[in-house]
Write a structure and sequence with these properties.
mainly beta, 265 residues
Length: 265
Amino acid sequence: MEQKRFEDTILEKDYRLIDPLYASLQNYPAPKAEQGVYLETRYQISRKLTITKAYLDTWKNLAFGLLNLRLQGEIEYRPVFPLRIRLKEKWQIKHQPKEVVATASKTKESTLRCFANLSQWDNLNLELRYGQVIFTGIRKYDNNILMDGGYLSCDWEHHFSPRLSVKGGMATWRTDGMSQWIFEDTGIDFLNGQGSRYFITISDRFSPGLQLRLKFRGKFSRYPHSEIYTPDKKFYYENELGIPVRDFTNFEDLYTWSLQLDYRW
């Protein structure tokens, strides 16, 4: 399924329900009634040039008859061993039913990735991504129809032995309404506003079935709030009506560490 049955409906927003318990229906394990076609291919043009993945995905919401489209292609160039360069492009058009006229969002995303297995013990990865979403303009939001965002990341992994390894990475990002997602070691992280982050993971495999992972990370996010106080929009603090709310920035610094023990049999 592309979407759950109650996604993009009033049952998805618990703050709009008289009884918020009904929001649990959002997790009801049933898909929306949809119909579509999915085509995927991989093609090696030459020894150095390969279309690693390309797909076309079309699906229609049968309840409203709205057609959606997703197209993605990735091409890899290997100039010299062991360097690989991958360029990925993604285009998407999604429609959402409304009371009068359906709205549409158009997404475009570009990713440039360079990576290399430097030796039996080292791996280096560089990635640059930028995306934007164009919405149907409405007067409520001053016809602000564009969100965008991107990031630059780098990570490196070194194996001291078949058992012991260290992996570290860092990233910096800047977004304007469009959240970005990024892989981090064994997890995934979401990037909003602007900021930077880093992580270090030490992994030790005591035996074929027992592994210990120690991870430390720091994340520094900044959320600018601008153009709040203008001649047309005057906002004041609740308990201090004579003081207008000026532009400000939220600072969120987060440090975490985790210890994970995996046992496989």
